[in-house]
Specification:
This is Transcriptional regulator, GntR family. Residues 4-71 form the HTH gntR-type domain. Keywords: DNA-binding, Transcription, Transcription regulation. By secondary structure, this protein is mainly α. The chain has two domains: 4-70, Arc Repressor Mutant, subunit A; 73-195. Helix content is 65%, strand content 5%. It has helices at residues 4-19, 31-38, 42-54, 73-93, 108-122, 126-139, 146-150, 154-165, 170-186, 188-197, and strands at 28-29, 58-61, 65-68. A three-stranded antiparallel beta sheet has the order 1-3-2. β2 (58-61) and β3 (65-68) form a beta hairpin. The mean pLDDT is 92.
Length: 203
């Protein structure tokens, strides 16, 4: 196992590449090339990829190596459903607690991820927080397609942000969270197609 001071930044760098669509869906991840790119040995790269395989962001096949996970239509819907359940659970544990404001100086996919983490942080349950974060990581790249598939998502974001940061009545927040997740679940097929067609950014 790699030393933590090498492993953690390597793992985070690989995960960030997955979350921003560095590779095409299903693409083989060349560990040796990745090690060169990151300026580390093969060991922390392999260790990071094995951890990401456990998190279902990477698929490993003996003899064929590591590939970017293919998020299917069914899996996308299931993740949305579980994410919603956990969001509502976090909301229920601290319905009147104010959330931490989200930094506006970042791209939409990162803002929406931080907004949902703000809901998680309202809860004192560390398992809810950890699972919302993990599901959010798996959904993160799909959020890059929100505007293309759904149209104007900034208005939706602003409504959610205002409700969450200002601790709006629980019924209002539940309605907004349900609407957010159901809207995407209805377009699960479009998301699956967009993810499958993504060419990646690697040359």
């Amino acid at each position: 196992m790699s030393p933590a001071h090498v492993f953690e930044p390597t793992y985070e760098a690989i995960k960030r590449r997955l979350m921003t669509g560095e590779w095409a869906t299903g693409a083989r991840i060349e560990a040796a090339r990745l090690a060169d790119d990151l300026g580390v040995s093969m060991t922390p790269v392999r260790d990071g990829l094995y951890r990401l395989n456990g998190e279902r962001m990477v698929d490993f096949t003996p003899g064929d190596g590591f590939h970017v996970h293919r998020l299917t239509e069914t899996e996308f819907r299931d993740l949305l459903e579980l994410h919603l359940v956990l969001q509502l659970a976090a909301l229920a544990t601290a319905p009147n607690r104010l959330a931490t404001p989200v930094s506006a100086d970042q791209p939409y996919p990162d803002r929406i991820a931080d907004l949902f983490l703000a809901v998680a942080d309202r809860s004192s349950n560390s398992e809810i927080v950890a699972n919302i974060a993990a599901i959010g990581d798996r959904l993160q790249f799909s959020r890059h397609f929100d505007a293309a598939i759904l149209g104007d998502v900034e208005a939706e974001y602003k409504l959610l942000e205002a409700a969450i940061v200002d601790a709006a009545p629980q019924t209002e927040m539940r309605s907004l969270l349900l609407g957010y997740h159901e809207r995407r679940a209805r377009e699960a097929n479009a998301y699956a197609r967009a993810l499958a067609a993504h060419p990646g950014r690697q040359s």
